[in-house]
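Students often ask why we bother encoding 3D structure as a string. The short answer is that it lets us treat folding as translation between two languages. Here is a chain of 224 residues written in the first language.
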Amino acid sequence: MIPHAEDDPARAAFVCQMKQVLDVYARPYDPARPVVCLDEARRQLVSEKRQPFTDRQGTRYVDYEYKREGVATLYMVCEPLGGYREVLVRESQDRFNWARVVAHLIEEVYPDADRLTLVQDNLSAHTAKALYEVFDPGRARRILRKLEIVSTPVHGSWLNIAELELSVLVRQGLSERIPGMSALTTQVNAWKDARNQDQKGVDWQFTTDDARVKLKRLYPSIIT
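And here it is in the second language, the structure alphabet:
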């Protein structure tokens, strides 16, 4: 939960990191220094035990029983001002896959950028050292030199725009039951392509000035 007690030192940490994120969101669009948000979510894969059918009146029937087919991880990449997003489907969620996703962004999606600012949740798997575990030292260092990491505060994942995009994906683009990785990839790609084609940007309106008013209770008392 967001810290509320006046003597809780976590309040200062929350405000500090929140303002870092909000300052990043306030930057003007610069294709040479894109701001990209990253978030991930696990998705249960299930298949039908009995094939659904639709009767003559158009009513669709789905059996309540299903078969578990494992779990996949969705890595949501979102550039709010660029109107771009990408969803990468992986079998697991760990620091190694995080490193590969970051390398994909730096080397393939934004190879010509001078620097990429990455906004992400404050998770243990989001660690720069993983780049040195996955890639040779020279490549890892080249990636890090082009990377600025900004973490949302603990219990402040709502500040990550990629988390909002994941919510939109679940509501708009995914079936309730998806039998496997191939079907999941097909669905997320169809949603991603349609959303990118429409150039759906993100109009983030919560600013540092808003935070001072609406979240005033979170600001620690100044010691004099």
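Translate back mentally: The first strand starts at residue 35 and ends at 48. Keep this in mind for the problem set.
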